[in-house]
Records
---
Amino acid sequence: MNSKFVLVAALAAGALSSALAQTTSPAAPAPASAVALPAPQAVPAKIALVEFLEAAAATNEGQKARADVQKKYEPTKTKLEALSAEIESLSKQLQVAPATMSEDEKASRARTIDTKQKQLQRDGDDATTAYNADMQDAIGKVAQKLGPVLIKYVQQNGYTMLLDNTGQPQQGGLNVLWAPGTDISQAVVDAYNASSGVTAPPPSAPSAARPRPAAPKPAAPKQ
């Protein structure tokens, strides 16, 4: 899990107070009659790292949502595979066509193959777009519910800053090439699974690769 992008800045006032204590210019000497106040103490930063989108997809509910979307598109996937196989078969037939076949017949078959290839490209692009949109929506809904669990975990465990390691940039985010901290992704997944009541899905049998869904972009969790 690589550190990539900042999602949330300071979650507690401690880190901000520490920064202000270092940057504020010294105050004028207090009158002798004034009561001396203790100097502000810098609060050590405790940084948490999380792969927010990956964590949402890794929850039991997220896994079930992904499986439901994949099942929905199984018929489309089968149809595209059948069309691809047909194109491959027609192409091989044309390659081994007998010398007695007329040029007009060869040209007609080539046009048929070209038409089917364009159809495959078009249908494949449409299916990928729809699949990605459905997957983004499904995981995004889980991510919205994961946000409060994440913030609660951070607060209960005394973290003062939360950094998101998600592999895609958040809008307006800043690149973080490296950041010290504790990766709490799995701990948050476990906490969410415990609160959601959704059981872990059974292991699925290996299947052919599906179009890779675009990562959802839920709003950053708010305190």
---
Amino acid sequence: MGVNILGIETSCDETAAAVVVDGAEIRSNIISSQVDVHQKFGGVVPEIASRKHLELITPVIEEAMEESGLKFADLDAVAVTYGPGLVGALLVGVAAAKALAYGLDLPLLGINHIEGHIYANFAVTPDLEFPLVCLVVSGGHTDLVYMEKHGNYQVLGKTRDDAAGEAFDKVARTLGLGYPGGPLIERLAQSGDPGAIELPRAYLEKGSLDFSFSGLKSAVINFLHRARQRGEQVNQADLAAGFQQAVADVLVDKTIEAAKGAGVSTILLAGGVAANSKLRKDFMDKAGHLSLRVHVPPLILCTDNAAMIACAAYYKFLRGSFAPLTLNAVPSLKLGEERYEGNFRRIVF
């Protein structure tokens, strides 16, 4: 018999539940998105997101169990994202997971949201070889992570200001495209020339693996403002293509630099921005020329989902790294930390 884990994810505006067997067999992966609810506001409104999670959490879990073909009695553990994320949203998932774990007398596993994104790759390719480097790139995170083994994380670089996905959203808003910005900019950029408008790339000081997209975002906004002041027409497709290319160049170059510096031959992509087709293609092209292997999850596992949480939980289950029923939401949780009952410890290997 395999290890059957119910995963729950409510860190932002997706209410998600999934059942995964042995960290790789996805029996169900239900995602209820709130994009339509938040579009009118141009971004996620935390209070509204929390209330929608309250409405959706029970039916989403029930649907995940029904689709999996398993009964609650067949489960071996319950896993949940407890940070980082929006505190109100996280609390809904944590409360539901604790209630299930208590009622079913099952182990509880607390999962870091970023850790979940990384493990989306293991959900489809469980035999990935260590050590490796993973780029986690989303609306809230842009992190370069070195992994020597399961559960062992060293953050090599992170964003100093706007995350890549956040920059996509802000530029899309400035262009009047709407929310969420990533898919809209990608669609517009398909008919544009990425070399038509010169935009900056922030590589920061020599040897740094950190990221900064605030300057690029500001350059796009200033370009638009100056053009409007002069009464000039802007080719928005060219601007979108140039912006997208600038982001992709920095992400790809720094990730390859990190892989070469760490002496690894395997690169993972993860997070919502990893769904961007231009970014995926550039990674495959540039890394391929250097004999580096690149793994990217399918699109459904790039954006927030619960299958990735259940997958990450499987490896914690094997290590016996369980959470107490006093588990609480930790909106500022860092990768490689465990915070239970207000206590903090960094995992050291």
---
Amino acid sequence: MKHTLRFRAYLPDDVESEAWHHIDILRQIRNHAVRDYYNSDYNDRPSDYDQHNKLTAWVDRWPTFAEPSRHAAQQAITQIHSDLETL
């Protein structure tokens, strides 16, 4: 069983705006990775490692994907595959 910790944060408006901006970009990366996964051939679905490698090409194609840290983007992709394993 996984546990999730929740904390309340009171951020200044400019920091809050930047945080929501990064969360939105990570959502776009996650959605793109999900589409990439399900649009692949059933017998040749990409692993999280494969999609981490594709992230470089995605950043070249969509420069906004480079704004959040690469580690956060990889974590968003890894979370997809973690969720798929629990199904």
---
Amino acid sequence: MAAKIVVVTGGGRGIGAATSWLAAERGYAVCVNYARDKASAESVVARIAKAGGKAIAVQADVAVEADVIRLFETTTRDLGPVSALVNNAGILEQQTRLDEMSAGRFERVFATNILGSFLCAREAVRRMSTKHGGAGGAIVNVGSAASRLGSPGEYVDYAASKGAIDTLTIGLAKEVAEEGIRVNAVRPGVIRTAIHASGGEPGRVDRVAKFVPMQRGGEPEEVARAILWFLSEESSYSTGAFIDVSGGR
């Protein structure tokens, strides 16, 4: 059986960390990508190694083309040919209305969330597509329920960036369907991760939970399970598809 090797962008914390751990449990060698938080990424790698798995931590800013190319080259060199990508890295900034946002903010959010996802998907396709001599594989984009809800008064820019991820998922899935690559997306709702602190409201999950039909926030592990299903052969006839992990919201 061919080796299963996955790149998880933003793999050191939150949903990325939970996905890295679960992937390792299910037999993947994992590249845990991080932009700045080396300690968290190395902690994930250490946990995987302690459990008998194989993982490496690789620093790369997904918004920088040269970094993304190096990320995939390093993974191939140290682990082997990439067979899966989880496009998870994403950022948001302080909660505010669109008319108070700067052009610099748009550029930062779109660079990581959109450009980063496109660059990583491109490098994965170049390596996995049968058209390029690859053995096929799977890409899972981590979107957001925000693409459907719009995040008014908080993160319209973030929501728009995740709308782009929805479109990327649909278009790329059709583009590479005959080349052995499946492309799907998981759209989390309000999940208990540190990203909310970036927006200035660490307790946002508890405030928003009352608007969720299930009346609670989600856990990173609940998102990771959906991601791993899309990576697995259990979803072999699914491409261009979405799973909303949002408690019914």
